[in-house]
Amino acid sequence: MKSVLVDIDGPLATITMNRPERRNGMDLDMVHAMHDTLATLATRRDVTVVILTGAGDHFCVGADIGGTEADPEAVTHRRLAPAYHSTTLLHTMPQVTIAAIGGGCAGAGLGWAAACDLRFASDRARFSTAFLNVGVAGDMGAAWVVQQAVGPARARELFLFPEKFGAEDALRFHLVTRIFPAATLLQESRALALQLAGRSAYALEAIKANFVAAERLSLEDFIELEGARHMHLIGSRESTAAFEAFAGRAGTV
User: In 10 A of CB 207, how many CB atoms?
Assistant: First the structure.
């Protein structure tokens, strides 16, 4: 059985971590399959939105501790380093990425979720950084992306005191932005994803690129980049049509 499933429906791709019997805990196969899947999707111009979710009752509880490879050589940094950049891809790929988080979301799984542009949780979601509980510092870029989501002070608190917390706390921490009933999480996430997918593909990509650039550039340099990108898009056929449609709606009450 494949550990990562992909369903493409027009401009929307849904990636499902598929080890429900292990609460979608990561093994080497899943880690490498996720990276390869994201790298392939990042090249597709027909896909504009990607949902990341987990099969069964959980999102992903991080590394599958009970199923860790017996051979220490199998889990060296050298072998895993490329796959760690699944987090980079979720954060920087041209598509808008959405984490639909049901049940447990911990450790490296939290890293993948926090790397996404949008994070929606079920009312049954449970979160933890978890790393310190097993005597490690973290991987999958978790400290970087969690800090981006919740701020440095809160991120340090979550990593140094890795207690579990629920969806309401995640909303309060700004780790997630919406909570849905567990039974309708994927349906609600898909509806929002399709709403985004109906927008200009070029504008979606540019908005995401602006946020990624803003993390790296000074304000002065960012304004130059943003302005050039804006002027490039504003003369496009898609932008002209969107302006005309918006003007038409604005003229009606």
Answer: 15
